[in-house]
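Supplementary Note 2. Why include the ligand at all?

Several targets in our set were suspected to adopt different conformations when bound, so apo predictions alone were not considered sufficient. For every target with a known small-molecule partner we therefore ran a joint prediction. The input for nicotinamide-adenine-dinucleotide is given below.
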Amino acid sequence: MMNLFVISGVTGMTGNELARQIVKEGHTVLGFDNFFASSIHTVEDLLENRNFHFYEFDLNSQEQMEQLKTKVISQKACFSQLIYINCAAVVHTEHFYHVNKTFETNVLGMKRFLDQALSLEADIYINCSTSEVYSMNSWNEDGGVAEEDYITLANAEHSQRTSYATGKLMTEFFMKDAVLDNKIKGCSVRFANVYSKNELYPKHIIPHILVQLKEKGKVELLENSKVNRRTFLHNEDSCSAVLALCRTTEALDGSVYNVATDEEISIVDLVKLCAEKMGIGSPEITFKGYRAADPQRRLLSTKKIRERTGWIPQINLNQGIEMCVKEMGY
Ligand SMILES: NC(=O)c1ccc[n+]([C@@H]2O[C@H](COP(=O)([O-])OP(=O)(O)OC[C@H]3O[C@@H](n4cnc5c(N)ncnc54)[C@H](O)[C@@H]3O)[C@@H](O)[C@H]2O)c1
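The joint prediction is reproduced in token form.
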């Protein structure tokens, strides 16, 4: 029998691809978004699909969440499992500093969405957290920071940026609490640097580089980028990880999963890779501005999710950048 998935932030980078993969398997999606950081275009290919239902709703609107609840109630009896996935968030580096905005949506919104799932006796809740919670300890020398490692957060003395991560960390406790109380199965997922071929947000590093190369043939980076290294995860892989977790009941123990690749690249080499794929030789790179509390590396151990679910990423960075560049018409 098929499942009913309720997805917040469904037109965002994670939500739209999740919906695509879910509908492809024959399941049904009730998804909503308030277009804070996305548009209906990301799900245009799904709008005619009878298993995909979209609503322009705000996670922070009590009235609209009641309407959503009514829709779920009217459908849930036809499905084997009811699965909530919370993708809606105020995310992206420029918003990380705005504690009120991130707290309202990312913490209170997550909690209310979880409470709705609990009130409807949903089977599973997946909480999208973030690798930002590792803050200044975002890597170690043993092949990446693991879920159970203790974390050292930059705090308000250093940068308001960590308020986003602190809020996300709080949601992991709500998730665990609900599972420990046997109210639902679920887990939190700490994504690291997800990208997609149709990302709308040019301030994320990959679209930032691609757009600058396309428009100016050169790239301006932050001073941090002289030393920073990152891994990048294609959104088809981030979503297949979430669905692998949904299929693995034993994994839904309220705990946390890192979801990332271990293919680390310096930001300068990333510019060179993007330029190469666009047919631009030796791009000019300039450095301006500095971002406080930005870790030099973010390298996550993904042993836990790989061992428990068998998930492995399928798209390497070379292929992923080629997909992005092709989408831009090259
Ligand atoms: N992209 C990454 O690298 C990354 C890394 C770590 C964690 N995450 C987490 O993964 C989840 C999905 O992120 P994403 O990359 O898809 O981001 P995204 O910004 O592309 O998607 C989030 C979506 O939520 C929507 N939204 C925001 N506020 C809303 C509200 N009040 N009501 C309804 N919809 C609302 C936005 O319009 C957007 O479509 C988020 O929880 C994010 O914190 C992402």
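The two ends are 43 Å apart (CA to CA). Residues 4-196+234-262+299-313 form a domain with the Rossmann fold fold (CATH 3.40.50.720). Comparable summaries for the other entries are listed in the accompanying table.
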